[in-house]
Design a protein that fits this description.
Elements: H1 14-28, H2 38-49, H3 53-69, H4 84-88, H5 93-109, H6 114-126, H7 133-139, H8 144-154, E1 158-160, E2 167-169
Antiparallel strand pairs: 1-2
Amino acid sequence: LNLGKRNILELETPENKRDVELFLRREMKGRVAPPEAFDEGVELVLEKSGGLLLYVHYVREERFAANKQGDGKHAKDGAATFTLEDLKAFPDGIKGIYATNFERLLDTALDGDEDTYQTLLSAVVACRAPLFREFVVELFGGDARKAGDVVAKASLVLNVSPETGAVSVFHKSV
């Protein structure tokens, strides 16, 4: 089986930056306040993203999370709008997003029970495939309730499949 020549996506190419910028312009249209700051806002997020669409996805999710929390002003579709100051406060790059989420987990979710989360995180990092719900329950001595609580809190830094409950890293860059 010959799959032909493979194209490797380089983040710093003009084509990739243009694609990310076009996506940002679409996603941020009508969501930067004041409207005159739109171009500067797009450029700011583009720079912070480092050319990663995964970062742009984070910005998009934060916009909808702000709506759920009642923060900021909202556009017609209910998604929050951001000022340049809001956008400047976003973490720098994908590593900044991971650091922010791990800090949140450490500060709020652990409740002084670091060993419990260490058990889950160690298993997830060591495994190449998602951990199935049943395996996670076994990690906690068969206590499904405890496993569910731990996974719910750890979802700040881990991906949890809504269909199967399988736990994995959010992205291989972790």
